[in-house]
Design a protein that fits this description.
175 residues, alpha+beta, Cyclophilin, eight-stranded antiparallel barrel, elongated
């Protein structure tokens, strides 16, 4: 092999190595974004004894969400997941940001589920992802992920603004 051929071979090997390295970086990044759903981290969870009567009473179909000084009213669905969730109220948690469209929180225990593909998600939808990830959406979107629907904020005016872009303390309580 002459010097030029050897140099070309080394050059081609470097280019192939860079292509493979770039592919690995792109594939790893894509994998992380595709699987960046709810993840468990050092979130806080505070349970307070509920003195609002029977939390399983299906006539209690409204809930209050407080974020800072803003209060939002949620119309709750009537299903086993909501009944279990209501039994945990009042509840103050630190919710994390995901995808610039939702806040989420992982409970330390599981809730019953009846998940179905979400399809169209609207700002103000309160859902459970899996069996222990509470999700509050503040943007409209379409999704193929499955959720159990818990309820919907009646008036979402100002929701996105008060939730901001990072972690946020949110209080849930029966109305």
């Amino acid at each position: 092999m002459d010097g030029k051929s050897e140099c070309r071979t080394v050059f081609k090997m470097k280019i192939n190595f860079r292509k493979h390295l770039l592919f690995i970086v792109v594939a790893t990044t894509a994998f992380m974004f595709c699987h960046a759903g709810c993840y468990k981290n050092d979130q806080t969870e505070t349970y307070i004894n509920n003195d609002n009567g029977n939390p399983n009473d299906s006539t209690l179909s409204k809930m209050k969400i407080t974020i800072g000084s803003a209060v939002f009213i949620v119309s709750l669905n009537d299903n086993p997941t909501v009944r279990k969730f209501k039994s945990m109220l009042p509840l103050t948690i630190e919710m994390s940001e995901l995808n610039a469209n939702e806040k989420f929180f992982y409970f330390s225990s599981t809730l019953p589920t009846d998940s179905a593909p979400a399809g169209t998600i609207m700002a103000g939808d309160l859902m459970l992802y899996g069996n222990n990830c509470l999700v509050l959406f503040y943007e409209n979107l379409n999704s193929s992920y499955s959720y159990t629907r818990l309820g919907k904020i009646e008036n979402v005016t100002g929701l996105k603004k008060v939730l901001g872009t990072g972690k946020i303390i949110v209080k849930f309580e029966l109305q």
